[in-house]
Every structure is written in C-alpha cells, then in structure tokens.
Design goal:
The protein is mainly α. Helices cover about 80% and strands about 0% of the residues. About 10% of the residues are buried. Keywords: Membrane, Transmembrane, Transmembrane helix.
Length: about 170
C-alpha cells in the first residue's frame, strides 16, 4: 500500500509539473487584447456580410430567371392590319385542319349552298382585309374580320354535321 501511495504521489507531482499554470500576467494580456478589440469593426463586418450574401443571392436569382424565362421570338404586330394578316393566316390553318380531319373520316367537302356561303365568307374576308390595308388602325374592321372568320368556322362545322346526320340515316 505504501508503494501505491508513493506511486499516486509521484503521479500527482508529475501532473502538477507537466501542466504548469500560466502566470497572472499572461491572463491579463489576453483579457486586455479581447477588451481592446474594436467592437465597431467587428459589428460592421458582421452586418455587411449578410447584406452581401442577400445581394449575391438576388443577383443569382435574377440571372437564372433571365436565362430560363421564355423569350418572345414572335414579332408583335405594329398595326391592326398586321394583326389582321396574322388572323387570316391562323384562319386558313384552322379551315384546312377542319377540312382535313373530316375528309380523313370519310366526309365530302361541303357543296351546294354551303360551298357558296363559304365562298361568300372568304370573299368578305378578303374585302375586310383590303379595307384594313387602306385604314390600318381601324379596330371596327378588325372586329368585323374576326366575326367573318367565326362565321366561316361555324358554317364548316354545320356542313360536316349535316353530312354526319345524313350518313347516320
């Protein structure tokens, strides 16, 4: 047991010698350095860092949005006449599509009164378009063109619907 006490005493002495406590002057120097550090400078950098991060985030989002935002590649019409030209192109495509679908299903092209009425509506469309060429910003002519186009589509639907009813009989 005495050996054990002696061993413990030796260990305690060794630990005390191995980890010497810093002298008081060292701690005072550390405290003085911590207190002397300018608080305003630390606060300014800690305040500006989040603002820089926010600004960088906003800039990054703006760049990404500008890259992914769909770009308008179609030219916007400058006058009502140009808009009428686009309407006529769309109307021609719709009429051809309707005719192609019905003819693919075995229906015949409209004939008789329907064909004559369709020809009259197409002539009316040409006349309204020519009037728009002379008065390129007349909105009432544009509305008239839109109405003529709607009537043409309705007449096509009626002509093919009538054939459908006749085939069912």
């Amino acid at each position: 047991m005495t050996q054990r006490k002696t061993l413990e005493q030796l260990l305690q002495q060794h630990q005390q010698q191995a980890a010497p406590a810093p002298n008081k002057d060292l701690w005072q120097g550390i405290e003085h350095a911590l207190v002397r550090q300018p608080q305003g400078k630390a606060n300014a950098s800690s305040v500006t860092k989040p603002w820089f991060a926010i600004a960088a985030s906003i800039l990054m989002v703006a760049v990404l949005v500008s890259q992914w935002w769909p770009k308008n590649t179609t030219q916007q019409p400058q006058t009502i006449y140009e808009l009428a030209q686009q309407l006529n192109q769309t109307q021609d495509q719709q009429v051809e599509l309707i005719k192609a679908r019905f003819e693919a299903a075995g229906y015949k092209a409209p004939s008789g009164n329907f064909a004559e009425s369709l020809a009259n509506l197409q002539q009316a469309r040409k006349q309204v378009t020519e009037s728009l060429m002379k008065s390129p910003n007349d909105r009432s002519l544009l509305e008239m063109l839109r109405w003529v186009n709607q009537q043409e589509l309705k007449l096509l639907d009626q002509a093919y619907a009538k054939q459908s009813r006749l085939q069912q009989l």
